[in-house]
Write a structure and sequence with these properties.
The chain has about 350 residues and is mainly β. It is built from no helices and 24 strands. The chain folds into three domains: about 150 residues, Sandwich (Jelly Rolls), CATH 2.60.120; about 100 residues, Immunoglobulin-like, CATH 2.60.40.1220; about 70 residues, no CATH class. Strands 1, 2, 3, 5, 8, 9 and 11 form a seven-stranded mixed sheet that branches. It has a five-stranded mixed sheet with strand order 13-22-20-16-17, with no helix packed on it.
């Protein structure tokens, strides 16, 4: 028999709601997929969306069988690399996720649920970080089985997306959580359709919340070429920043406004100097006894009179961590040991 090709279909259900906003369900046909049983096995399943629209809300529904739910780390990744933690090692020795809906507006966190998690739960991460992005492209459900022996099957999953015909994000530069050595860099925003500046503010803050610079989207420091917006602020310092954009800054020229950025965790970046680590990010854990190291090489000669250490890391259980600073001569300084609880 001669192979004639493989076809992937995405099933969609459309619900039109008032105000030109539509609610659409996209169901993956990239199932079933086996899960586990070897530690570190990563299972992925995709949904490819050809439509072009901006997200205003996302919910995720999954159905899977597994014989030890606590083995599983489940994430949703949008087409542009934004990863949202849905459920990370919850459920103990219980089995399965059956008709489990992840919704930011749910009343119960998934961490407070119990297998088979039937119903609607808040994910561990925030799905609202997908608001404002374009729906277009390939979405990925990623399931990591972190322990040996137990296994299962991803049977189905779907996305319920509320969307509108406003410009949706397709890229940010520097990317979120980026480390950059070029303090003179421009900020770049890419959309899935040509935006029009309407005057809402673009605000750049230092990571501590101090306003660095603010100007309207119609300012000369903002230029638009096709679907790309370039922002040319003053030179940055060697520190961290985040960007907020008003929901009145850009539209499509027909009154359909980009949602803006109102969350200080949405677009962060740090400019690093000679005495800042440039070998990041680095994973921490999850196995007991895992040692993570990061280095800074200082070329200046002289006598150390004073030193301050600033760190930024994410971890789901701070009391697991012992943090040390080690000098080039081997002097070991304990910064934090087993602090912070859960």
């Amino acid at each position: 028999m001669k192979a004639i090709g493989t076809f992937l279909f995405v099933w969609c259900f459309f619900l039109v709601v008032p105000g030109g906003v539509s609610a659409v369900t996209y169901t993956s046909t990239d199932v079933p997929k086996s899960i586990g049983p070897n530690a570190g096995t990563i299972t992925t399943s995709t949904i490819t969306i050809a439509d072009s629209a901006m997200i205003t809300d996302v919910n995720v529904t999954i159905n899977l069988n597994h014989t030890y739910d606590e083995d599983l780390e489940i994430k949703l990744i949008n087409p542009y690399g934004v990863s949202i933690e849905l459920s990370m090692q919850n459920g103990g020795s219980g089995n399965n996720y059956i008709n489990t809906v992840f919704d930011d507006e749910a009343g119960t966190p998934i961490t407070a649920g119990s297998p088979p998690f039937t119903g609607t739960y808040q994910p561990e991460g925030s799905l609202s970080l997908l608001d404002g992005w374009s729906i277009q492209g390939t979405w990925t459900l990623e399931i990591t089985d972190v322990y040996n022996l137990d296994s299962g099957t991803l049977n189905s999953w779907s996305l319920d997306i509320t969307q509108t015909t406003a410009p949706g994000l397709t890229g940010l530069n520097p990317p979120d959580n980026d480390l950059n050595s070029n303090k003179s860099t421009d900020l770049i925003i890419n959309f899935d359709r040509a935006p029009v500046a309407q005057g809402g503010n673009i605000s750049i803050y230092e990571s501590g919340g101090v306003l660095f610079e603010q100007f309207p989207s119609t300012d000369a420091r903002v230029t638009i070429a096709g679907t790309q917006v370039t922002i040319n602020p003053a030179d940055f310092d060697y520190t961290g920043y985040y960007v907020l954009i008003a929901n009145s800054a850009f539209d499509d020229g027909s009154g359909n406004y980009f949602a803006g950025i109102s969350d200080s965790t949405f677009w962060n970046f740090t400019f690093v100097g000679e005495n800042s680590a440039a070998d990041l990010p680095k994973p921490i854990g999850p196995d007991r006894g895992t040692v993570t190291t990061s280095t800074i090489t200082v070329s200046n000669a002289g006598t150390l009179l004073d030193a301050d250490v600033t760190i930024s890391l994410t971890h789901s259980y701070d009391a697991d961590l012992d943090i040390y600073l080690i000098s080039p001569a081997g002097t070991r300084v304990e910064l934090s040991t087993d602090n912070g609880g859960s």
